[in-house]
Amino acid sequence: MTNKEKEILEIIKADPLIEQSRIAEILNISRSTVAVHISSLQKQGYLLGKGYIVKDDEDYIVGIGACNVDIYGKSRIKIRTHYDHPADIVTAVGGVMRNVICNYVKLGGKAKFITAYSDDSYGRMIAENCRDNGIDISEALYVKNASSGLFIQVQDENNDMYLAVCDMSILENLSPEFILSRKNIIRNARLVVIDPSLTNEVIETILHLCKGHVPVFIDPVSDNYALKIKPYIGDFDLIKPNRSELENLSGMKIRDDTDVEKAAGVLINRGLKRIAVSMSEKGILYMDKDRKIRKKFKEEKKMVNASGAGDALMAAIIYGEVNGMDIEEVLDYGLAAGIAAIRSKDTINENMSIDLLREIIKEKK
User: Fold this and answer.
1) Domain range holding 36?
2) pLDDT tens digit string along 135-165?
3) Cα–chain center distance at 245
4) Which residues on neighbouring strands pair with residue 93, listed in sequence order?
């Protein structure tokens, strides 16, 4: 959409029955020019049918954070230090926020993705993959002559992560000024979800923009990132840590399940509205100021790839929130999404859908 088309769309949103001649008068352009822009908006899908029916994007969410190319190397033998391992190597588009958004879109949601990518070969992979998966990156930052995000993971013979390295420096181009330029997109969202790979200044800007307007969810992603977001805990509406991340967020040593509840309570007392602790095979602990819920399914024996379960869980929680589900139902869908993820050889299960989650819930409960 051009700047002029954006202006015209805003005018039509305010008065859907406005005449083209009046729009031309407001913008000091010819009526024929207005007609050309309106035709373009219709072709792009921003205006539907006759009478300038504005496309309803009311239920979209905004994801802000990492998108990168993932390179996974699964060792065929037991991992040894200083040793050249035979392995199966796979390249895919990933990134925590991209994975969350991709899962959410597959579940049937609408999302806008704010990230940064470049004009290198990895950036072209990212852009093409997002388009193929129905992810809207029209609000993302395109950076020329830079290196797009790259994540490299080594998995052991049991499909678990042994170590990983990443370069997400391109996200440093996402400045507070750039985020403010997306103010209307962010504030009009049903929900904003971010990851901690953003700079502190950008995180603070997002929280300030959203306060009193739109809820903000976050996944700590790692132990180090958990420490990074610890000062902002009271500003989030929901956080989804695992056990070790919860230790860093609460500053409390966790020895057993009782300690998990105590540590979650510490964060609620600091102003966090809701927390969903991912406890691996022990399920999920959910807590807010009024209730505490533990949810667990039957043991899963079909794990193919441990990567992506947390991202799928977060996507399902967001889907349940946007669609007004009861928290018990939300947690069921979250657990099912995690199972769908680990049953797939890819980080994103290509068959991810609400129907699939319902099948898993029926199987596991």
Assistant:
1) 3-54
2) 999 899 999 999 999 989 999 988 788 999 9
3) 18
4) 69
